[in-house]
Amino acid sequence: MTEKERNEYEQLKEVPVDSQQIRAGRILDMRVDRVQVYNGSLATRELVRHLGAVCIAPVTKDGRIVLERQYRYPVDRVLTELPAGKLDFKDEDPLEAAKRELREETGFRASDWVFLGDFYPAAAYSDEHIRMYLARGLVKGERDLDPDENINVFTLPLAEAVDAVMRAEIPDAKTQLAILKAAEYLKREKRRDGE
Amino acid sequence: MTEKERNEYEQLKEVPVDSQQIRAGRILDMRVDRVQVYNGSLATRELVRHLGAVCIAPVTKDGRIVLERQYRYPVDRVLTELPAGKLDFKDEDPLEAAKRELREETGFRASDWVFLGDFYPAAAYSDEHIRMYLARGLVKGERDLDPDENINVFTLPLAEAVDAVMRAEIPDAKTQLAILKAAEYLKREKRRDGE
To answer: What are the structural domains of chain A?
Structure first.
């Protein structure tokens, strides 16, 4: 943090005065905290705590991206998503988690990994933190799904995936974001290599 | 839904057999549901229900994007974000909500609104649904913040915002996504108009 950012943080930060665990779940730690806000008054913060996750944009050497179709209960829809998954434990190496999830869900192993950046999907009420990776040098092997996972894998030219994002046909946030970032990364890499 | 999508949905869908409200919050409805999965076995789904939200990418006529710095308690950080906010009630017209949030948080009114698509920020455990808008034709007026809101507004050339997203300096998901989509939309619009 710069000194300016430190001052801003000190000015805006909220200090917990009470934290109540509503439910210790398998995936979500549901909490309601009381906090003191910048002007000294008290406020309630409803939130969930989450181990964090990884999301992989696997691109084949002929420029196709590997996607999945997966049912998501909270929205009662089958969504087009990139391979992704939770960390197995706090502070797990996210790259190791990405390698595992890619192999388990799609069967692919990749020889070339690029960090595409991270994000908070819902910072207003969740501390979930997702890291994105571009995976290239793909070699196909066997899948290894969890017993309650049912995932259909397919591929699409990356340019078509970008068009689908622009037409709002891919409603999953991490998938939209990693497709756009992977496409922009590859465009910048090509431009750089062409110079 | 196409017939193929309907068949896929019928094959993959999970059917709730029990739904328990853990807490009816002001922002989050925290729930734990029991569901029957595709192979007939039972599974637990921890989730939060949310009214939905809007996110606005306001771009000035000299190509600058309007951003905010806001503290987010769950991640204990000040984040760079686009103007955004929850719907006031279920089925509120999202465009009306976007106009309200833009005015309240930044003071700007916009004459030109383009729908940039929607997304689920965390479909694995939240039904939150966010609609994104590009707002142009900006006219500055007075802000109208909620008493517990403390938001610093600033602007940045859109191209610099895209570079900041690519350098992973903007960790908020909706902000990354709407910046990349707004930039891609404007590029395609320019190309179309140039033809």
So the answer is: 3-49 (no CATH), 53-194 (3.90.79.10)
